[in-house]
Amino acid sequence: MRKRIIGIGGMTNGGKTTLSKSLQELLHNSLVISQDNVFKDDSVAPADVNGFKQYDTLDALHMDRMMADIGSWQEDPQSFMTSRDHALKATASGPSNVFVLIVEGSLIFNHGPLNTLFNKRYFLQIPYEIFKERRSSRVYVPPYPPGYFDGYVPMYLKNRKAMKETANNIVFLDGTQKSEMLLSTVLADIQEMLMVTQKMSCHLRDFEDHDFQQSAVFSASIL
């Protein structure tokens, strides 16, 4: 069994969730874990000097819970998927003996222990005007106070700078492209990685079989 972990990062409202769910539909034995599911309760979320709750910081997340889930998946992907009511099924893409975990979130590459686990890293970027338009069109509970959008940008730039200093091999994607085009680009890149993984697995089996046969011949010659 081979396991691969894909990271889908980017600014909020950049299209991470849409891309991740689409990949899950197309990749064999794949599952999405979202950073959105490990936010701390609003009552304990950190606040800035203006009193605005800071959700775009690692301190606002239960990263220990996320890492525990990922660790459980690494130990036994099949059992983990079953426990999440995610049935194993044949899909359109990917070798059958490879399990793929898709981790998505705005700060996944800023968390050192998590960042080291990724086999592929993708980061979606969109211009501020489009970000504000998308974010303004959504309903948040509790609602964000006036000025929060503009206060988000410096934090995003700070996180992005820190990410680029510590995370390598990130593929930056244009989040303004059509979702179908983004999906096609990322899917093709992942499929290529999975095919290499499959070939390596086959070569390893061939080598082990050859080594076993040679050992058998050697043992027979001694007898």
For the report, how would you describe the main beta sheet? 5 strands, parallel
Q: Helix-strand pattern, N to C?
A: EHEHHEHEHHEH
Q: What would you call the shape?
A: globular
Strand order of the largest sheet: 2-3-1-4-5
Strand content: 5-15%
Termini gap = 36 Å
Number of distinct beta strands:
5
Share of helix among residues? 40-55%
Q: Output the radius of gyration.
A: 21 Å
Mean pLDDT: 84
Class from helix and strand fractions: alpha/beta
Give a concise summary.
The protein has 223 residues and is of the alpha/beta class. The protein has helices spanning 16-26, 63-75, 77-83, 112-115, 128-136, 148-166, 179-222; strands at residues 2-10, 30-34, 98-104, 120-125, 170-174.
What does this protein structure show overall?
With 223 residues, this protein is α/β, with parallel strands linked by helices. Helices cover 48% and strands 14% of the residues. The chain is built from seven helices and five strands; from the N terminus they run E-H-E-H-H-E-H-E-H-H-E-H. The protein has a five-stranded parallel sheet with strand order 2-3-1-4-5, with helices on both faces. Helix 1 (16-26) packs across helix 7 (179-222) and helix 2 packs across helix 3 (77-83). The radius of gyration is 21 Å and the shape is globular. The mean pLDDT is 84.
